[in-house]
Amino acid sequence: MGFGYATVLDAVRRVMAAGYVIDHHGAINLDGELRMNSSEWAAWVQAVFSVIAILAAAGIAFWQRKGELADRRADDLLRARDAAIAVAPALISWDNSMDSWRPVLASGEPHAIWGPLAAIAEDRYSLKLSDSIEHLAGNFRVLGPAAHAMQTAYVRNAELVANRQKIRQYWAWVNLNGKEALNEDLRKGFEALVRSSADSVRKAKEEVLALRDS
Fold first, then answer.
1. Domain of 30?
2. Do 29 and 122 sit in the same domain of this protein?
3. What are the pLDDT digits (tens) for 168-200?
4. What pLDDT does 21 receive?
5. Which tens digits make up the pLDDT trace of 54-79?
């Protein structure tokens, strides 16, 4: 900023020194008569104006910095909106693809997960994300306030992909042995996975659309 603590301290010391000279020479007597010569007045005025100049410089630097931060936040928001506009259509489509899952998951029925598991196991539901979403992967922070929700949705989908082979094996076992042979722990685990994925996609869509329309 062009000045520092030492500069301020030096100016203050000069003011104090000027004051000492004034007191030492009895600048004001009992009758209120001033007793400073021209050089003492000059030292006093110079010291005072040095402090004023430093404080003024500090104020200017502060407001400049504040303005720079405001400009940076505005630029970040503009980039975030551009990213939201680009990814919104794919995110809407992704969310819509899970609409048929939500009523059955919300029903609370013990076997509500069968439909979604069958769709994943039989490749009737694609876990492949659109290019616009994959393009942002690893850089979701550009979405600003919607970044966390988008990252969560992406991670939940990756977890489904990682478990797809287990889901296929599980579904094949169910078809071979009947629904009575279901492993309850596995069913609950897969249900929680599918539910969290659907919920996270819905939240990501809501936050991205809010950013797009801001």
1. 5-70
2. no
3. 888 888 788 776 666 777 778 888 888 899 999
4. 43
5. 888 887 877 877 777 776 777 878 88
Q: What is the pTM of this model?
A: 0.64
Q: What is the number of domains present in the chain?
A: 2
Domain end (from 27, 43, 70): 70
Cβ 206 vs Cβ 94: under 8 Å: no
Domain-terminating residue out of 43, 70, 97: 70
